[in-house]
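Action item from last week, closing it out:
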Amino acid sequence: MVILENHSPVLSSWDCGGATSLKAYDTVMVVKTGAVDVTFTGLNPDGTKIEKKFSIQIDALTTLPTEYKYLFGNPDAGVTSKKYVWDETAGAVWGNGGYLGSTSPGWWTNDKASMDTNDPDYGSDGYMLFSISGLTLKKSNASGTKTETGTASLDLSTVIKDGNGAVWASAKLNTKNVTVLKGVAPNGGNAPIYSYDILKLTDSKLVLAWPEGGDGAGAWSTAWFWMFRTAN
């Protein structure tokens, strides 16, 4: 865990070994040993930016939270990456439903086979590879001719509850320079989505959601859902 502190009166943007933060003071998880590059970008009130780059040394990794082991792999067990594909056992793998109400596509639903049409770049057999080293995320079609690579991180501090006080989302998945499969806003010009609510994360399942109206959206407003399973 790396503690980030900015004591200057500027807006903050950190990239610490692939772990990112927009807070002046934060703690991020870096899953990498050796020299780790850190980039700080500050935004002044007049709109100008300042940047500072340096490196820190990480000699050993301590125990990872269970959620990181589920998503990226458990180095203690010799698992350093995990492959995710569309979860055909869920029936509908992508579509929309009610924010804070649904936990899977319930209004407009699409099965795995339909992703050949809905996502022709990656298709129904596309996959995502989450790797513990550097917390990287690679998205690829089945043949490997179309790929994107970036980083991913978990925000375990963000918990979203429904109107009855029950936990609806237990964390957030944030990505950089890459989205999940079909990670776009269909009613927003197919703009890429880089932050997802995590509804389920186990050793074999990953269920994500994103509200069209943002985190302050009302219950049963439109949200989009992604259903994945591991293929390791």
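Closing note: Residues 68-230 form a domain with the Lipocalin fold (CATH 2.40.128).
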